[in-house]
Predict the 3D structure of the following.
Amino acid sequence: MAETPIELAKAELRTTVRGLLRALTAGEREAESAAICDRAMAWGPLSEANCVMAYTPMAREVDVRPLIARLLERGTTVCLPRIDWENHGLSPVPIRDPDRDLGPAERGVRQPRADLAPIEADAVQLVVVPGLAFDAAGGRLGQGGGFYDRWLANRANHVRTIGAAYACQMVAQVPVAAHDRRLDAVATAEALHTTDRHG
């Protein structure tokens, strides 16, 4: 089956942004990640949420571990996703100590230990979403697996979302299909872009 124009545009953008991410030094990633975490924490819905699902960064993704630490310090329930690779699904699993509660990496991603139980997905109030490219209108391009789009599809009306983006990941417009979920906000080192998706 031939790829659609949107799929082709997504593939091209993924290639471009991956090249830009490879050019970032470790020091640049660390400095930008710290500033991004500060911007994200300043967003009211995140600072007020009682239950947040974040993510464990893959290579070259924004490192949100400082954000996770701050949320845990203030008593927020922090979940990390357990990934169902076969069915492209996510389950939110509460963690208390990322150093102890995560198992070894699988496919480049550390996940909550198998003995930790997930919670009901609807308990999650806000999701910190990783991605490859973002735009100021909340458009997001993921790695291509559709994990977050599937998980968020059934929770569009009650869960807030914020993306974490290096400057090189921000583009004028992300190509989006009907099933792609727009974010409520995108945090970069320089700005917090918010949308009116929740009115």
